[in-house]
Amino acid sequence: MAWHPPAPIAAGGQTLVLLLALCTFVSISDAYDPLDPDGNITIKWDVMSWTGDGYVAVVTMYNYQKYRHIQTPGWMMGWSWAQKEVIWSMLGGQATLQGDCSKFHAAIPHSCMRSPTIVDLMPGVPYNQQITNCCKGGVLNSWVQDPMSSVAAFQVIVGQAGTSNITVKLPKNFTLMTPGPGYTCGPAYRVPSTRFKTPDGRRTTQAVMTWNVVCTYSQFLASKAPTCCVSLSSFYNETIVPCPTCACACQSNFSSSQGCLREAPASTGGSSTGLAPQPVAPLLHCTQDMCPIRIHWHVKQNYKSYWRVKVTISNRNYAMNYSQWNLVLQHPNLNNLTEVFSFSYEGLAPYGNAINNTGMFWGIKYFNDLLYQAGPFGNVQSEMLFEKDAATFSFGEGWAFPHKVYFNGDNCVMPPPNAYPSLPNKACPSARHVRPFLRHACLLLLFSILLVLL
Ligand SMILES: *[C@@H]1O[C@H](CO)[C@@H](O)[C@H](O)[C@H]1NC(C)=O
Ligand SMILES: *[C@@H]1O[C@H](CO)[C@@H](O)[C@H](O)[C@H]1NC(C)=O
Ligand SMILES: *[C@@H]1O[C@H](CO)[C@@H](O)[C@H](O)[C@H]1NC(C)=O
Ligand SMILES: *[C@@H]1O[C@H](CO)[C@@H](O)[C@H](O)[C@H]1NC(C)=O
Ligand SMILES: *[C@@H]1O[C@H](CO)[C@@H](O)[C@H](O)[C@H]1NC(C)=O
Ligand SMILES: *[C@@H]1O[C@H](CO)[C@@H](O)[C@H](O)[C@H]1NC(C)=O
Ligand SMILES: *[C@@H]1O[C@H](CO)[C@@H](O)[C@H](O)[C@H]1NC(C)=O
Ligand SMILES: *[C@@H]1O[C@H](CO)[C@@H](O)[C@H](O)[C@H]1NC(C)=O
């Protein structure tokens, strides 16, 4: 078989460009997604004691999601009673509607709804309305970010229910809103009664009956349109690759009563702290991508054995402060992340500890854990220092850019790989920093296609 020298490649410029695009694509599209396969919110319903006509229960919500949280205006939990139950009273939460309690003459229940919806109380309610883990305005932090605040709880006193573990019927059709859609809850199922340790740890008590409900999140259910996008730049190429046009919506058909805004509106925020949480309508600054959140990744500096990246998160929504925000990044060099400035960090290792290419970043309490509404303060920044691994490190082939970016658990739209800032000298076979494996693959492909062409 004739072995053609590389010389004719120059003539086949188009082929080369094509192959380069292909090579770039191959190095970027290690597509996988389930970063948090077991992530869920588990609702635990502990019947603590029986009453004359029902029971006292503590309902606890555990956010077992690594990087997805519920922020203001907060969660709303609903279910349908299986029998004729009513809620006599509540602590640490409240039903949004009382419903028709006209059948009751002496004592009036808190709620007679067949399908009640419960919301959290605001912080600072009187102590006699609180229970442990209640009253956070519906905010539920993610489990990695802060296990302590990833739990919410309220107490209900249920009437017209069974008064034994045989006659009580489990509620049905649980729902969890944030307050928008996104979560789907499974059926309630009996589990062994929860055991509780007294504060001194010397006595254990237990619930008389416990059931669980597991709710899982789907971005598809939550919103059909993406909510964030990624832009890229580097010190070795002055091109700034913007977010893809219309990544989240187009300016022309941005669905909002006011369209998009060219400058800050006269008054923002002060969103109602009314009873039932409402989804906040976005008030977006005009951009070509119309994403409320932009993540900018800048390859800032190259040292002998390290390299440095600057990440900026910009909020373009005038109507929203993002509290307890988080960012998940996937990049092959995260296994050698040496230092992170201004953000908290934890590796996620979605494949056990086999590949540490995914990390979660979030703000430092009281410093930048609040991503302020659009405007001069509407951004947070961090720099990250990576140690180079000689076997894989490269500025070629877009290697220095992240594979995947998630903001608050939502997948962000990336620019197409062939638009990434490239090294000034972009010829595939001669780029010095190209990964050896890819270079060989490139050459091989090039030659085989040339052979076919000739
Ligand atoms: C929910 O999360 C918990 C904690 O990670 C896990 O033990 C449980 O198996 C999960 N449940 C489901 C149905 O995924
Ligand atoms: C109900 O409770 C009794 C004792 O209180 C227990 O013996 C029985 O196993 C329980 N039944 C179920 C179905 O849990
Ligand atoms: C639960 O939802 C199903 C399907 O939406 C419905 O058929 C059923 O009547 C509901 N059950 C209750 C108790 O509301
Ligand atoms: C907006 O317009 C673009 C192109 O004009 C179209 O592809 C897209 O489906 C439209 N989106 C909506 C929500 O109407
Ligand atoms: C964001 O937070 C600041 C400070 O707490 C507040 O003044 C502003 O009104 C908030 N903006 C929105 C949109 O809630
Ligand atoms: C990934 O990180 C974990 C915990 O930091 C460590 O035990 C493990 O060895 C790492 N795996 C690799 C391949 O670096
Ligand atoms: C990078 O991390 C891997 C696995 O965590 C380790 O084996 C390797 O020695 C590290 N490389 C450098 C240059 O620190
Ligand atoms: C910078 O990157 C862009 C996009 O890949 C490329 O078109 C351009 O030629 C590069 N600039 C230089 C000076 O190499």
Q: Any overview of this molecule?
A:
Residues 1-31 form the signal peptide. InterPro entries: COB_C (IPR056900), COBRA_pln (IPR006918). Belongs to the COBRA family. The chain has 454 residues and is mainly beta. It has 2 domains: 40-221, Immunoglobulin-like (Sandwich), CATH 2.60.40.290; 225-263 and 281-423, Immunoglobulin-like, CATH 2.60.40. 8% of the residues lie in helices and 32% in strands. It is built from 3 helices and 26 strands. Strands 1, 2, 4, 7, 9, 10 and 13 form a 7-stranded antiparallel sheet that branches. A hairpin with a 4-residue loop joins strand 1 (40-50) and strand 2 (55-64). The longest helix is centred in the C-terminal third of the chain and has 18 residues, at 436-453. The chain is elongated and about 85 Å long. It starts with 12 loop residues before the first helix and ends with a helix. Residues 1-33, 426-447 and 449-454 have low confidence and may be disordered. Bound molecules: 2-acetamido-2-deoxy-beta-D-glucopyranose (NAG) (8 copies). The site of one 2-acetamido-2-deoxy-beta-D-glucopyranose has 5 residues, from loops.
